[in-house]
């Protein structure tokens, strides 16, 4: 009787689970790629991608089928045209800032020069008690006490004071392009009689008359000039003393900077 050899069959491990597992990994990879790229694509492309992914999960065609393939832009999230525009805007702002700085320095230098000329004129003509100058961060102020220009209670420029207005006009004419503000002020002593109803009226007329004397120099542009009166309401000293009231009665000529300097 023949002996039959037992046939040994090699046992195979069931690897069928690898297929869905690989599919799952593929889908997860696709999901991570989409999440990474979602901030770098426009809304329309993002919609298409999400529909493609949804189709894959619900039994439709695979997310990477040719019909649903969407090119992903995974380059750095920089729009070149916007970047160029931003760079151009930054450049323009810097140029504007540089121009303003240059203009500010120019005005500072010019007003310092004008102040020196005015101070020299005041000193040479022994007008220290009647005139003074002050340079601030936004203007040069020329203060003229009322006794240098007017008789008491009058807004008419004294004949021998006309030359003061002319001298100031000549110096202002050397530095064109500034707004010139002429302002009148009084003390708080009420107007008792005359052509003016109150101190406000008097201060306004005094400022206007002095401005007209300055503008008699035709080299100056009237469109840069303005005048106003503040009456007794902006004192620089006490009204309780004769000296204080004398300081409050004044005309101020302000040469205003176009670009205000830092404090």
UniProtKB/TrEMBL annotation:
Q: Where are the transmembrane segments?
A: 18-37
InterPro entries, per the entry: Bact_OuterMem_StrucFunc, MotB-like_N_dom, OmpA-like, OmpA-like_sf
Its annotated compartments are:
Cell membrane
* Pfam families (alphabetical): MotB_plug, OmpA
Which GO CC annotations does the UniProt entry carry? plasma membrane
CDD domains assigned = OmpA_C-like
Membrane topology note: Single-pass membrane protein
The entry's family comment says:
Belongs to the MotB family.
UniProt source species: Paenibacillus foliorum
Disordered: annotated span: 75-110
Which keywords does this Swiss-Prot/TrEMBL entry list? Cell membrane, Cell projection, Cilium, Flagellum, Membrane, Transmembrane, Transmembrane helix
Q: Which Gene3D superfamilies match?
A: OmpA-like domain
Q: Which residues form the OmpA-like domain?
A: 137-259
This protein is called Flagellar motor protein MotB
Q: Does the keyword Ion transport apply?
A: no
Q: Where is the composition biased (Basic and acidic residues)?
A: 79-110
């Amino acid at each position: 009787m023949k002996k039959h050899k037992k046939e040994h069959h090699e046992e195979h491990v069931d690897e069928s689970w690898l297929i869905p597992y690989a599919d799952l990994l593929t889908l997860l990879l696709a999901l991570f790629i989409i999440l990474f790229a979602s901030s770098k694509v426009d809304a329309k492309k993002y919609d298409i991608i999400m529909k493609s992914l949804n189709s894959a999960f619900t039994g439709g065609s695979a997310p990477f089928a040719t019909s649903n393939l969407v090119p992903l832009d995974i380059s750095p999230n920089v729009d070149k045209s916007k970047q160029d525009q931003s760079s151009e805007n930054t450049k323009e702002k810097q140029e504007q800032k540089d121009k303003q700085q240059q203009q500010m320095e120019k005005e500072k230098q010019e007003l310092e020069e004008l102040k020196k000329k005015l101070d020299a004129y005041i000193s040479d003509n022994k007008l220290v008690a009647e005139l003074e100058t002050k340079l601030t961060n936004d203007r040069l102020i020329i203060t003229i006490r009322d006794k240098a220009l007017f008789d008491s209670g009058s807004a008419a420029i004294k004949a021998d004071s006309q030359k003061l207005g002319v001298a100031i006009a000549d110096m202002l004419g050397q530095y064109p392009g500034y707004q010139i503000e002429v302002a009148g002020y009084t003390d708080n002593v009420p107007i008792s009689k005359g052509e003016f109803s109150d101190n406000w009226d008097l201060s306004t007329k005094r400022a206007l008359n002095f401005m007209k004397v300055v503008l008699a120099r035709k080299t100056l542009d009237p469109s840069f000039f303005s005048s106003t009166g503040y009456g007794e309401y902006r004192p620089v000293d006490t009204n309780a003393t004769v000296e204080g009231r004398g300081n409050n009665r004044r005309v101020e000529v302000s040469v205003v900077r176009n670009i205000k300097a830092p404090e």
